[in-house]
C-alpha cells in the first residue's frame, strides 16, 4: 500500500536534500524526540543555528518527517512500498536509504506510542478478595451469612480506581463458571482459525 | 385490617395501635430469635390471658417469611448479581492499523441495596489478565469450601 503525500507535505520534506546527510540524521532525531515528548522549539532553534538553515525550514522538515514516519508506521507499510512512496519526492538514493533505515529502526516504537492513543475502556489491574461472615445486623440477630468482599482495581487513562464489591457464594461459583467458559472460547477452533487467518 | 368486616365495630385508632403493636412484637421476637417460652413470658407480663398467648404463639410459628425479610434488610457494598462477557479481536483503530489483538470485555451486573440500580462495572482485559482474575476467584471459592468444612 502506498502513502500519498500532499503537496504541502512534499514542500516541507523538500528541504532535506539541500540540508545534506548530517542534517537528515539530526532532523530524524528531532522528529523522534517530538514523537516521544512533544514539540521542542528550542531544540529546533539550536539545530537551525548548527546547520545554518532557517528555523521555519527546520520546523517544517521535522514536522514532515514526523508525519511520514507516523503514517508509515500506522499502516505498517512494507519496505518496498515505503521506498516507492518517497520515490515521488525525487531524492537521491542515499537519502532514500537513510529515510528507509529511519523508518525501519523506529517503526516498533512509534507503533507502541500510537497504540496508547487509541480509545480505551477501563482495564483490569488486579483483584483483592476477603471472606466475610455477617453475624448480626440491626434487623436480625444471630445470623450466619457468608459473603465474599472484593476490591477490583482498574486502570483508566493512567488513573487507578478501586471499586468495592460483594457477592454471595452461589454467585461466586456462577461467576467462575461463566468466566471459565469465556476463557475456553479462545481455544475453540473458530477463534483459532480467525486469529490464524488475520495476520 | 380497616376493611375487615369482623373488626368494623372496633375503634379504628385502637385497631391501628393493636396492629402496630403486634407487628413490632413479631419483628422484635424474630430479630432476637426468641423461643416460645420467652414470648409467653413476655406476653404474660403484658397481662394477656392464656388463650390469647397460645393463639399468638401458634401464629408466630409461621414466621419464616418474616425472618427472610429481616435477613435481606441492611446495607452492604454493591452486590454482584451476574456477569456477561464479550471476546473481540481488534483489527485496526483510528491511530493504528493491523493491531491484531484479542481482548475480553467483562461486565459485572451490580445491584445496590438502596436504590436498586447502579451502573454496571465494565472493564477490558487480555486473556492473561482474565486468567489471573479467574484464578483469584477460584482461590476465594476454595477458601469458602475449607471454611464450611471446619
Q: Terminal Cα separation of chain B, in Å? A: 48 Å
Largest sheet of chain A: 3 strands, antiparallel
* Oligomeric state of the chains present here: heterodimer
**Relative helix content of chain B:** 40-55%
Number of domains of chain A: 2
Structural class, from secondary structure content of chain B? Answer: alpha+beta
Q: How is the largest sheet of chain A built, in terms of strand order? A: 1-2-3
Compressed to H and E, one letter per element, the order of chain A equals: HHHHHHHEEEHH
End-to-end separation of chain A: 16 Å
Class by alpha and beta content of chain A: alpha+beta
Tell me the β content of chain B.
Answer: 15-25%
* Helical residues, percent of chain A: 55-70%
Number of helices of chain A: 9
Q: Strand order, main sheet of chain B: write it out.
A: 1-2-3
Order of helices and strands of chain B: HHHHEEEH
Q: What is the gyration radius of chain B calculated from CA atoms? A: 28 Å
Question: How many beta strands in the DSSP annotation of chain A?
Answer: 3
**On the 0-100 scale, what is the average pLDDT of chain B?**
83
DSSP summary: helix tally of chain B: 5
- Main beta sheet of chain B: strand number and arrangement? 3 strands, antiparallel
Shape verdict of chain B: elongated
InterPro entries (chain A): COMM, Commd2
Protein name (chain A): COMD2 protein
Pfam families (chain A): COMM_domain (PF07258)
Organism (chain A): Cettia cetti
Jot down its keywords:
heterodimer, A: 199 residues, alpha+beta, 3 strands, elongated, B: 150 residues, 5 helices
Ordered list of secondary-structure elements with their pairings:
The complex is a heterodimer of chains A (199) and B (150).
Chain A: H1 7-13, H2 15-19, H3 21-37, H4 41-51, H5 55-75, H6 79-87, H7 93-115, E1 123-134, E2 145-156, E3 159-167, H8 169-186, H9 189-197
Antiparallel strand pairs in A: 1-2, 2-3
Helix pairs in contact in A: 1-5, 3-4, 3-5, 3-7, 4-5, 5-7, 6-7
Chain B: H1 12-32, H2 36-45, H3 50-60, H4 64-72, E1 78-90, E2 101-111, E3 121-125, H5 127-148
Antiparallel strand pairs in B: 1-2, 2-3
Amino acid at each position: 500500500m502506498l502513502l500519498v503525500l500532499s503537496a504541502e507535505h512534499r514542500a516541507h520534506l523538500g528541504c532535506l536534500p539541500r540540508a545534506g546527510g548530517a542534517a537528515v540524521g539530526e532532523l530524524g532525531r528531532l522528529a523522534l524526540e517530538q514523537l516521544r515528548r512533544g514539540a521542542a522549539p528550542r531544540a529546533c532553534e539550536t539545530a537551525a543555528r548548527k546547520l545554518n538553515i532557517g528555523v521555519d525550514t527546520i520546523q517544517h522538515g521535522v514536522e514532515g518527517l514526523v508525519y511520514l514516519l507516523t503514517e508509515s508506521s500506522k499502516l505498517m507499510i512494507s519496505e518496498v512500498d515505503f521506498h516507492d512512496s518517497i520515490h515521488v519526492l525525487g531524492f537521491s538514493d542515499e537519502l532514500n536509504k537513510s529515510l528507509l533505515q529511519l523508518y525501519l529502526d523506529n517503526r516498533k516504537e512509534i507503533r507502541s506510542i500510537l497504540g496508547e492513543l487509541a480509545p480505551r475502556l477501563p482495564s483490569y489491574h488486579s483483584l483483592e478478595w476477603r471472606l466475610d461472615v455477617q453475624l448480626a445486623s440491626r434487623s436480625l440477630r444471630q445470623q450466619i451469612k457468608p459473603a465474599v468482599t472484593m476490591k477490583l482495581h482498574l486502570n483508566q487513562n493512567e488513573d487507578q480506581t478501586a471499586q468495592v464489591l460483594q457477592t454471595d457464594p452461589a454467585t461466586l461459583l456462577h461467576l467462575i463458571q461463566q468466566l471459565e467458559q469465556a476463557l475456553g472460547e479462545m481455544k475453540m477452533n473458530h477463534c483459532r482459525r480467525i486469529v490464524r487467518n488475520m495476520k | 385490617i380497616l376493611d375487615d368486616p369482623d373488626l368494623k365495630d372496633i375503634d379504628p385508632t385502637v385497631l391501628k395501635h393493636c396492629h402496630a403493636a403486634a407487628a413490632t412484637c413479631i419483628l422484635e421476637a424474630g430479630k432476637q430469635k426468641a423461643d416460645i417460652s420467652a414470648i409467653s413470658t413476655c406476653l404474660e407480663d403484658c397481662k394477656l390471658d392464656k388463650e390469647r398467648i397460645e393463639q399468638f404463639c401458634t401464629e408466630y410459628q409461621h414466621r419464616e417469611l418474616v425472618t427472610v425479610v429481616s435477613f435481606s434488610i441492611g446495607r452492604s457494598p454493591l452486590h454482584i448479581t451476574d456477569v456477561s462477557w464479550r471476546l473481540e479481536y481488534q483489527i485496526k483503530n483510528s491511530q493504528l492499523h493491523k493491531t491484531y489483538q484479542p481482548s475480553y470485555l467483562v461486565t459485572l451486573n451490580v445491584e445496590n441495596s438502596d436504590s436498586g440500580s447502579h451502573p454496571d462495572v465494565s472493564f477490558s482485559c487480555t486473556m492473561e489478565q482474565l486468567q489471573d482474575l479467574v484464578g483469584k476467584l477460584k482461590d476465594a471459592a476454595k477458601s469458602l469450601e475449607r471454611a464450611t468444612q471446619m
